[in-house]
From TrEMBL:
PROSITE patterns: ABC_TRANSPORTER_2. It comes from Triticum turgidum subsp. durum. SMART domains: AAA. Belongs to the ABC transporter superfamily. ABCG family. PDR (TC 3.A.1.205) subfamily. The keyword Transcription does not apply. Keywords: ATP-binding, Membrane, Nucleotide-binding, Repeat, Transmembrane, Transmembrane helix, Transport. This is ABC transporter domain-containing protein. GO terms for cellular component: membrane.
Length: 400
């Protein structure tokens, strides 16, 4: 019965409603909740339409019309017959076989209805993204370990970009080095820590951090949970609005000015936030129209969007709806790559990525790292925070 209902409803919501209604009707008229003798005459037709009724007739008749129930009589009526009369199930013994035939008939009816439903109803449309055959060949050629072994050498040995795109983009950008020395970061001490005896007014989260990131080099900030990877990334990108920052941060050898730095940098957050009702291509194009300077004409902007989609390997699914996470639309790995594309389309010289492989299995993480490696191969400065990477993912980075 439920398969028959599902074949006509098709969607989860409609199937849940239809299945619940069918279940309630079957249970209501089955003779358990309301015995047949208590049903109004105008409602008794429902008793004969419920498959549960025939099961009840067959089981009760088989039990209470047995010889051991007929030997005991009350007021001249056999005990078994009296019980059946009270429940409105006082039928002749041959109704046992009628019940079996009716149940077989219902089984045949529901299966025929199920087959007809599958035949006449079209397959519902879906917005789920499909990986192209080329990617299936590249990523699904074997088990997960073999996929990693086949894919990661490509990250280390060669670029996935086509020769006409390596190191050159439709829109030019200036490769920049970001360097920092003796960076410290302080925040107000939380009240909970003061209650436990920590008397300092300021809590130091970063202590004399020094380093540099170069263009065209894929760099990783590594550390255990709570080590301050994201904090350092936020301080360098200028996303920290509270606390006290000390130290020297330079861009291309010049002191960092946040108003200028914001125009030449991008930041990929760990949480992927996208509009679910637009396509992948529309998401990237919308970001390009909002973030590229007005001097860029429409043709150059569209060419740059296409190039970014190809670089991040989203060209095959550019017409797929983004959808709602864990419900429909793109997979987690595809959402990660879309986040990178949305930031990359602003043509930044420096791009920060917070945990680009978090929440991904080994295969999906390798696909995302292919896209990240493509970005670094264009000559941009790419900095990623990473937590517990596999050996293959770790070796894909140039610096860590």
């Amino acid at each position: 019965m439920f398969r028959c209902v599902a074949s006509y409803c098709q969607t989860m919501v409609a199937g849940s409603v239809g299945g619940t209604m069918a279940f309630l009707a079957t249970l209501l008229f089955g003779g358990f909740i309301i015995p047949r003798s208590f049903m109004p005459n105008w409602l008794k037709w429902g008793f004969w339409l419920s498959p549960l009724s025939y099961g009840e007739i067959g089981l009760t008749g088989n039990e209470f019309l047995a010889q051991r129930w007929l030997e005991i009589k009350i007021s001249g009526v056999a005990l078994g017959r009296r019980i059946l009369m009270d429940q409105g199930l006082d039928f002749s013994s041959y109704f046992y076989w009628i019940s079996i035939g009716a149940l077989l008939g219902f089984t045949l009816l529901f299966n025929v209805g199920f087959a007809i439903g599958l035949t006449i109803k079209k397959v519902p449309g879906t917005s789920r993204a499909i990986i192209s055959r080329n990617k299936l060949t590249r990523f699904d050629g074997g088990d997960q370990d073999n996929n990693m072994e086949n894919m990661m050498p490509k990250l280390q040995a060669e670029t996935v970009l086509s020769p006409n795109r390596t190191g050159r983009m439709v829109l030019p950008f200036m490769p920049l080095i970001i360097s920092f020395q003796d960076v410290n970061y302080y925040v107000d001490t939380p009240a909970e820590m003061r209650e436990h005896g920590y008397m300092e007014k300021k809590l130091q989260l970063l202590h004399n951090i020094t380093g540099a990131f170069q263009p065209g080099v894929l760099s990783a900030l590594m550390g255990v949970t709570g080590a301050g990877k994201t904090t350092l990334l936020d301080v360098l990108s200028g996303r920290k609005t509270g606390g006290v920052i000390e130290g020297d941060v330079r861009i291309g050898g010049y002191p960092k000015i946040q108003q200028t730095f914001a125009r030449i940098s991008g930041y990929c957050e760990q949480t992927d936030v996208h509009s679910p009702q637009i396509t992948v291509g529309e998401s990237v194009a919308y970001s390009a129209w909002l973030r590229l300077p007005p001097e860029v004409d429409a043709k150059a902007r569209n060419d740059f969007v296409n190039e970014v989609l190809e670089t991040i390997e989203l060209n095959e699914i550019r017409d797929s709806l983004v959808g709602i996470p864990w419900v429909n639309g793109l997979s987690t790995e595809q959402r990660k790559r879309l986040t990178i594309a949305v930031e990359l389309v602003s043509n930044p010289s420096i791009i920060f990525m917070d945990e680009p492989t978090s929440g991904l299995d080994a295969r999906a993480a390798a696909i995302v790292m292919c896209a990240v490696k493509n970005v670094a191969d264009t000559g941009q400065t790419v900095v990623c925070t990473i937590h517990q990477p596999s050996i293959d993912i770790f070796e894909a980075f140039d610096e860590s």
